[in-house]
Design brief:
The chain is α+β, with helices and mostly antiparallel strands. The protein folds into two domains: 256 residues, Naphthalene 1,2-dioxygenase Alpha Subunit, Chain A, domain 1 (Alpha-Beta Complex), CATH 3.90.380.10; 106 residues, Rieske [2Fe-2S] iron-sulphur domain (Rieske Iron-sulfur Protein). It contains eleven helices and 19 strands. Strands 2-11-10-5-4-3-6 form a seven-stranded antiparallel β-sheet, with no helix packed on it. A seven-stranded antiparallel β-sheet has the order 12-18-17-16-15-14-13. Strands 7-8-9 form a three-stranded antiparallel β-sheet, with no helix packed on it. Strand 16 and strand 17 form a beta hairpin. Helix 6 crosses helix 10. It is globular, with a radius of gyration of 23 Å. The N and C termini lie far apart (54 Å). The model has no long low-confidence stretch (mean pLDDT 94). The structure holds FE2/S2 (inorganic) cluster (FES) and fe (ii) ion. The site of fe (ii) ion has 6 residues, from helix 10.
Length: 389
Amino acid sequence: MKSVAAPIPADPDVVEELIGHIRNRTTELTESELRVPIEHFVSPARAAAEMALMQTLPLVVGHVSEIKNPGDFITRRVLNTGLIIVRRADQSVGAYRNMCRHRGGIVEPAESGNKRAFMCQYHGWSYDAQDGGLKRVLYQDSYGEIDYACSGLHQVRAEARHGLIFVTLRPSNSVPAIAEYLGPDVDRQIAPWNLENALVALDKAFVRPINWKLVMDGAIDPLHPQFLHNRPGGVGARSVTNNSVFRTWGRHGKMFSPRAKLKDLVLSGEQPSASSKYVGSVMLLYPNALFVEAPEHVEFWTVWPTPGNPSECTVKIRFLVRPEVSSPEMTARLNKSWGILEQAALEEDFPMEMKIQENALALGSGVFRYGRNEKPPQHLHRQLQRDLG
Ligand code: FES
Ligand SMILES: [Fe+2]
């Protein structure tokens, strides 16, 4: 049996700050309270503007382990856009619209597989899996002239970094390559998890009648665990409320909160090590992904608004596991971890967020308020506001 690898170290400066907040009974503060119009959670016009914005940003749609070998592909529907995502012979990742250049038929109906070519289901035009180029048109003689060079599948910008597959549906000039989009600080946070080689140990999706931003808010909300997750042994008992730190790195950011163990050690006068086992964290990969560090794995969330419906979203949760900690014992720990998350998210967070959505729909106006001690969700809403102008 493989031995369990050491926990990933936590940033010592963050641990120092958390210890200070525990001792002083403080938390990181913003300059002011933020008020977000309730309309932003229920209005079709606002939802359409957010959708248009998201189409111009890199979004995480999968993990490289889903397309290991050259010719492997997966199909995905991302914000109403049908995509085929492929592994090329040179190991790079490519993406095309799953849409024939003849008259728009889908060229690949399967969810995954391995192919050299994709053939349209309508009249049989076929396309090279490696570059999306048009390969063959049936009855070409009687069809008429075709310019093969400009009849390939529509290319979609795709790039894998840290094993995460990013696509940008409508790239704009202002969105840089993924390394630059994430920036060196976010890179440094993700790198130790060796996600290129990670195993996807769990992959689930939940459709809920909730605006996508309420799910994001809930996941990076530093104040609610003590109240909403107050069952014995639940999330509230494991974390400390209102002693948190939030680092912003460009559009992204990361919330750090002490685990209950850290508070116990500090209050008993000990000097704890800078280990991630004492710190809970959630990183926001703007706009809609969350990187939640458990001691030995990463819970990776993506939250997808339903196009045309501000009051619905799909939450996708994957557990990414470092290969070096994979073992039967680890599987048991992952199952336990899923049990805790399932209770917190499915039985506590989502039902509360559904009620908030109902309330927002019923009132339709007014504001939601984010206090000075609620920096992480403030950051998300301020950044959306900056991007939407
Ligand atoms: S629509 Fe694809 S071959 Fe006609
Ligand atoms: Fe929660």
